[in-house]
From TrEMBL:
Transmembrane segments: none annotated. Residues 1-20 form the signal peptide. One of its GO terms (biological process) is proteolysis. It comes from Pteropus vampyrus. Keywords: Disulfide bond, Glycoprotein, Hydrolase, Protease, Secreted, Serine protease homolog, Signal. This is Inactive serine protease 35. Residues 193-207, 225-235 have a biased composition (Basic residues). Residues 140-205 form the Peptidase S1 domain. It is found in: Secreted.
Length: 413
């Protein structure tokens, strides 16, 4: 744990060493004007069947150089992809068409593809560099406490008192909602109380009455039965003492789910990896500190070129797993990297720690959603990456609209 804390401190501060001297770099959250995504019309759709398999089924992923060569989408194409489905707790579904205003096209990142080499499919590359967060001092505190688990087996991140950001394929395969997402729940980490809860208090008379009275034969038999059950409970508790103080999940139902039409094609086309993100509205608000959204900067603006995220990898039995790694390549909408991450961590919020403008303090923000392992074409050769979907200004505007219900709070980010 001490080694992990060292690396956490090292890679989240904006320092570099030049000729043996430390120089602080200018890693700052630069606010920019956000385009407006405006809800125009909402239509009722037929209820989904909730029969899709819980796996990503993309037929083709455009490679890095392909992303670079693709023509920029037209405004109408962007508006179609940013229109969104909403599925409600009772199984009903709507489609909302949107309009985009005040859009300023951003320059394409300087994509530098490295020599392509064929790799076998894997999600841990070389030495496993993941950390299991076991100490409750870290587990229940920010930023680790923002990570949540979905009942469908994915991860997510708290982005408001009522909302969780995750990957779209965790609830929808591009054509239909997956099995189990109709009664979708979100698990928030909490620590088990030592001692097994509060003891009930009351007078001896009340306890005798509750036990059926201790003066009759039936009452005596009842007391004996309860005493025997109490002994069994104590014996069982002895075997479970090891589990006391370990984390567990507090599950909350999901009120509704928003998915961009760029992903939820409904069979009209292939789901686009660029739109593999979804927002879940919880039925009950939580009281934990959440992480705000941020615009994804280019690789050159990442401290140490590093990204960070925490999730519930399936091979580590409900442990919260943290990792960081450098970003290898980028396109307009995706980050390509080799962060060690097994299934279950998809949907995690990828974050950075940068300075706030005109302030000395540092702030973490979500800048991408971890989508998972994908094969892409690089110069005609299949190459695999662990891919994340960047939060661009347009996606920021859309997710902000989902969170607040209007765009009045979404003018800059």
């Amino acid at each position: 744990m001490e080694n992990m804390l060292f690396w956490l401190m090292f890679f989240t501060l904006g320092w570099t060493t030049i000729d043996g001297s430390e120089v602080e770099q200018d890693f700052t959250w630069h606010l920019r004007k956000i385009p407006r995504v405006i809800s125009e019309r909402t239509f009722h759709l037929t209820s989904p069947t909730f029969e899709a398999d819980a796996k990503m089924t993309l037929k083709r992923v455009c490679g890095i150089e392909c992303q670079k060569e693709l023509p920029a989408p037209s405004l109408s194409e962007l508006e179609d992809s940013l229109s969104y489905e909403t599925v409600f707790e009772n199984g009903t579904r709507t489609l909302t068409r949107v309009k985009v205003q005040d859009l300023v096209l951003q320059p394409t990142p300087n994509i530098t593809t490295k020599g392509a080499s064929v790799r076998r499919k894997r999600q841990v590359y070389g030495t496993d560099s993941r950390f299991s967060i076991l100490d409750k001092r870290f587990l229940t505190n920010f930023p680790f406490s923002t990570a949540v688990k979905l009942s469908t087996g994915c991860s997510g991140v708290l982005v408001s008192p009522n909302h969780v950001l995750t990957a779209a394929h965790c609830v929808h395969d591009g054509k239909d909602y997956i099995k189990g997402s109709k009664k979708l729940r979100v698990g928030l980490l909490k620590m088990r109380n030592k001692g097994g809860g509060k003891k009930r208090r009351g007078s001896k008379k009340n306890r005798r009455e509750a036990n059926g009275g201790d003066q009759t034969e039936d009452g005596k038999e009842n007391l004996k039965a309860r005493a025997k059950a109490g002994r069994k409970k104590k014996e069982s508790a002895r075997g479970q003492r090891v589990a006391e103080g370990r984390p567990s999940f507090q599950w909350t139902r999901v009120k509704n789910t928003h998915i961009p039409k760029g992903w939820a094609t409904g069979g009209s086309g292939d789901a686009a990896l660029d739109y593999d993100y979804a927002l879940l509205e919880l039925k009950r608000p939580h009281k934990k500190k959440y992480m705000e959204l941020g615009i994804s900067p280019t690789i050159k603006k990442l401290p140490g070129g590093m990204i960070h995220f925490s999730g519930f990898d399936r091979d580590r039995a409900d442990q919260l797993v943290y990792r960081f790694c450098s970003v290898s390549d980028e396109s307009n909408d995706l980050l390509y990297q080799y962060c060690d991450a097994e299934s279950g961590s998809t949907g995690s919020g990828i974050y950075l720690r940068l300075k706030e403008p005109a302030k000395k303090n540092w702030k973490r923000k979500i800048i991408a959603v971890y989508s998972g392992h994908q094969w892409v074409d690089v110069h005609g050769v299949q190459k695999d990456y662990n891919v994340a979907v960047r939060i661009t200004p347009l996606k920021y505007a859309q997710i902000c609209l989902w969170i607040h219900g209007d765009n009045a709070h979404c003018t800059s980010g």
